[in-house]
Predict the structure.
Amino acid sequence: MHSKKRIILWSVIATVLLAGIISIFCLLFNRPLQLTQPTFIYIDGDDTADSVYVKIQHDLHGKHLAGFRMLSRFKSYDKHIHTGAYRFDAQTNTLTLFRRLSSGHQTPVKVTIPSVRTLDRLAHSLDRQLMADSTEIFTLMCDSSFCDSLGFTYETLPALFIPNTYEVYWNMQAKDFFQRMKKEYNRFWNEERKAKAKAAGLTPVEVSTLASIVEEETANRGEMPMVAELYLNRLQADMPLQADPTVKFSLQEFGLRRILHKHLEADSPYNTYKHTGLPPGPIRIASIQGIESVLNHAQHDYLYMCAKEDFSGTHNFAVTFAEHQANARRYQQALNKRNIR
């Protein structure tokens, strides 16, 4: 009888202890994060265990971190901090949080390549999207040996980047990011696109260069194949492209609203009023739309174009110089009327 009572007593005690242990475990390790939506936390190369705690508190609204701190001390987390971007949601508990961070099980992030005018602007855009900073990225862009290893020069490097959104790891090395872009470049330039480029008498880099000029010349997508063909006609006739956007690029004055004769004297290989053929490289990172407009250019005999006097962003096209002069006079009169200098 007494034996039976002792068994019952010990059973009760064991149950209470087990319940207590489970409760403590739940309090310490099973408490979910107080998140209303999935959220990223970014662990940098100079982070310490203490700075990670602060980020958890600030970015993930972590309020009960005693369990996390206990695991950190037990597992020596301060000696095994893994950089990266980690995405968590409201279902994430303390134990899962620690396991993910301590094992470096990060989440891929989306990086968007913008169609910007200069490489330094691209570097600053990537700085905001990756762990690598703009200085590190731009230094590689300016490294002739590194560019050569990719098959480019500093001038042609903008052609490497195909504006799109890519999934990468936030903490990837800058060199690895460039290698990834080279893979995407090779994937984009498939046999069909390369065949179209060859038919137009251009290399893929030259296509991107011409596309960059077309995009700066017109914002009207429907007009892009027309403008592309006009420049192709001029190239085939060995005529200077005389593209105003290349003058702006030469001067690095992208806000110019009116190109004057003094601007045409810019001493730069990018100035297509002074130099025949294409400039040394793209004057911006050409969009896919711009590249496709060159590959699928229109068919016509136009050699000249001038912005329309209605400022619609489109152009009047002409076959002869006399027709072009008439178009240009109307546009100059419109500029004067609006007092645009």
Notes: The chain is about 50% helix and 10% strand. The CA atoms of residues 21 and 27 lie 10 Å apart.
